[in-house]
């Protein structure tokens, strides 16, 4: 069975075998350039802030990924005096290797300034998948720009935007969301219309909470933010038949059901945040929605390397009982050790049959099948990081 057929069965709720695996393709599962510096070239990056690598199809396959990256490419940040200004006019500064926003162009703006703020021109190059690889993996297109809330935060300053909503400054908040909505749709339209074929999955990414709570009250999300998200996702559906993977970081459990009702097919969540236990989240979501990268693939690979059988049993059973699921790292990877762990975790998963996963899902950890998979994985040869 082809990988696309497996995805189709997964989306229809009929696939009960080992999960598909996504490593190294998007800002959700990608590899930061600093993790594998020998792959960093002077050319474009896959994400302008995270500086993830735009891995070629053969590199994704060698990592053990069933998915291949397509989508926009970005010029690497040009740091002048430790500062970098992005396409939206936001200024960033590098701090301990990470870029953080230090200046927001609409922080002190009046309503008229927002209404007349110029939209960026989309002229980015695209990463295309060569014809010989198009049947070798599932095409996933990374988000071409930040989401509604992320973009509003970047333009206005997170605290100012949250104050606009808390103080019922609806006109200002609505103007920022209107600008963001139209900018995002134009970015997706540019990307999707420039590709020679439609991807199988597209990512929409928008952080809605901290590690221990939400940015907004559930009622503010419901009354102000959700209608914009509904409009945005409805318009994305008009642009592409691709399945939509919705990502959000943070402790957003109070609004999970409302996000699910937006009609998404996949959801990528921070299951380390407060109240976001993966099995509890699974029970709250409709069975039709696929959990993407919400189980810790890197932790699984590390546990296998250390022969930590108790940890392995917990993680692999959790993965099976989270179905329908696509396995992947919890976040983009910042070290070679994380990359190696993800490769090993993927290999371990592939040592289980459909019957094995059925037992793990219905019975729980079964010692003999787990130990057999561990043995096979430890005997396997893995690609040298330097050879990727």
TrEMBL record:
Highest rank taxon of the organism: Bacteria
A GO BP entry: porphyrin-containing compound biosynthetic process
UniProt-listed InterPro entries: Methanogen_methyltrans (IPR052024), UROD/MetE-like_sf (IPR038071), Uroporphyrinogen_deCOase (IPR000257)
GO terms, molecular function: uroporphyrinogen decarboxylase activity
One family name in Pfam for this protein: URO-D
Start and end residues of each Uroporphyrinogen decarboxylase (URO-D) domain: 168-300
Protein name: Uroporphyrinogen decarboxylase (URO-D) domain-containing protein
Organism of provenance: Thermosediminibacter oceani (strain ATCC BAA-1034 / DSM 16646 / JW/IW-1228P)
Lineage of producing organism: Bacteria, Bacillati, Bacillota, Clostridia, Thermosediminibacterales
